[in-house]
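Protein modeling request. Please complete all fields; requests missing the sequence field cannot be processed.
Requester role: graduate student
Desired output: 3D structure, token encoding
Chains: 1
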Amino acid sequence: MHSRRNVFLMTVILGLMAGRAIAHHSAVVFDEAASVQETGKVTQFIYRNPHLIITLEVTDDSGNPEVWKIEGQSIAAMRASGFDRESLAVGDTVTIKMHPLKNGEPGGLIQGMIGANGKSYSMDGSDAPERRRLVYPALMPWEPPPEGETWQMREKKTRPPALPIVSDGSSAGDGSAAGFTDGAFDPENLAKKRPPAGFDLTGVWQFRGEDQWRANYGSFEFKPGPEFTAKGKEFHETYLEASKKGERFGDPTALCYPAGMPRFMTRYGSMMMIQFPTAIYMVSRLNNEYRVIFTDGRERVPESKLDRNWGGESLGHWEDDTLVVETTGFTDDNHLIQAGVITGAKLKIVERIQMINNGNTLVTEFTFTDPEHWVGEWKHVKFRDRVLRSDIREANCIYTDNLSLPGMGN
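Delivered output (410 residues):
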């Protein structure tokens, strides 16, 4: 067993987190009766729902380098401890307390951390008895409830202290904005007086591929391409060279990464849209990917609390009969705008959406900017047409299935 360095961490994390019992879907692999501490350099930091991941390079008792893979609690739980994406960076030297893996491999589930600046965080409150994590349900033997108990009695016994529940941003599944802005479905938010929407796009919409004119407009891609920066050009040229050789190259969706924006809006198959006064919800046939455009006038999530992802954060407003949507907050982890065109955290997308053809066609004018990968604005227009007698069905991306495709695996 590695030495338990920086033992003071055991005491400084006491009481830093509000009382809450926290469950975890993979808790069975960790020894929650034990705790270890390691100090080392952060070589990877992934801050993304449902939880974060830290890779720590440490020196073992023999003086040899060793890599520890550390799983975080939920992003909501981490935020409740005061931890955010600015609390840690690759290259930082930190001390982490964790429940170790049962199999003895170097890794664990984070309990607390002292950051590079000396600030301490508690992520599970496990040192306080009233805040101990719950036993994983599948490992608990069944105990019969009280004899004669009805569901009404059970409901009363298990009822939260106050209803409706008001999120403080620490519940599992909460989005980045949870706890400090009204939810799109809050009754008070829905009831607020707002100018009428320019149109209602509730329905099922099919992407118009314009296949006879692919060379002109790009179909589900975007032609002409942008003026690349040196970084963008290098990736694009590598893609073209690999393609000429018949090789698959650089498309993370083949390994089930989300397609994200703007590919979410420009892929074949149907998309369901449901419009409310406060938000527009979209589910795509493309692996059931999800998008929401908030139209309730909210502010953007602060950078320190932002859960960067492939779809970004979309805020919309109406300009007469045009829906204007600005989307930022993207990840730079394996995000393509189209085949051969990589993008990242500096991407900004502006969409101007109109409805034509008696409510049967959506016209979207896209403006893409990403100074890291191309120069200036990159503009395109795409169409979606209303489809009747059509519903969205479940689709699944299983990366092991994809590895069986020609050219993907050995």
